[in-house]
Amino acid sequence: MKKRKVILNLCTSLDFYIEGKNGEIDWCFTDQDYGMTEFLNRIDTIFIGRKSYEQLIKEMPNAFADKKKIVFSKTLNSVDKNLTIIKNNFEESVNRITKSEGKDIWLFGGADLTTNMINANLVDKLMISVHPLILGNGKPLFIDIHNRQNLELIDTKTFSSGLVQLLYKMENK
Questions:
Q1: Residue at 40 is within a domain
Q2: pTM of this prediction exceeds 0.85
Q3: Which range marks the domain in which residue 60 is found?
Q4: Phi, psi of 98 (to 5 degrees)
Q5: The pLDDT value given to residue 62
Q6: pLDDT tens-digit map of 44-97
Q7: What's CA 59's distance to the chain center, in Å?
């Protein structure tokens, strides 16, 4: 059985912020599909941090209803009935999940979970959609990464809106 891939898929501004200074994401383009239908067809599980989970259920409570959602949180005690919480031993849990039967896994975010996953060498690919705008400040895409991460560019796609999608493979994978 092949190992399921963990794919970080998110949008960023040209200055590599994933949120504006007040946590806003209203600048993310939604005027086209941007390959999301194809991407969603190749995954069946979503890894999500607590803050991103809380934002998702507030803004889009029925989003990705056909996907298994796994929330990583040390403080959250309950989530919707169709979700799983991982509180401890996240590396062991992720390794167990990636070795189980299923499709690839979307690392949805947020910043803390992404940092921990990259530092633990648990991310296989990065799909970054760079939006043609500069936010000037906000939450950066990467913080506190412990070691250099070499990437191999696999694909690029450009869209009429000016969005550029970059697909990288982590070289250590």
A1: yes
A2: yes
A3: 6-170
A4: -70, -20
A5: 85
A6: 999 999 988 888 888 888 889 899 999 999 998 876 777 899 998 999 999 999
A7: 17
Sequence-ordered list of residues with C-beta below 8 angstroms from that of 1, at least 6 positions apart, any chain: 99, 101
Digit-coded pLDDT (tens) for 96-142: 999 999 999 999 988 889 999 999 999 999 999 999 999 999 999 99
Alpha helices in the chain (DSSP H): 36-41, 50-59, 90-98, 111-119
What count of residues does the chain have?
173
Give the residue carrying structure tokens 């999608």. 165
User: Helix and strand tally (H, E) in the chain?
Assistant: 4, 10
Does residue 1 fall inside a structural domain? no
DSSP 92-126: HHHHHHHTSSSSEEEEEE-HHHHHHHHHTT---EE
8 A C-beta contact, residue 131 and residue 25:
no
Is the predicted pLDDT of residue 1 greater than 90, yes or no?
A: no
Judge whether 20 and 6 are in contact, CB under 8 Å: no
CB 17 within 8 A of CB 140: yes
Rounded CA gap, 104 and 122, in Å? 13
Domain count within the chain? 1
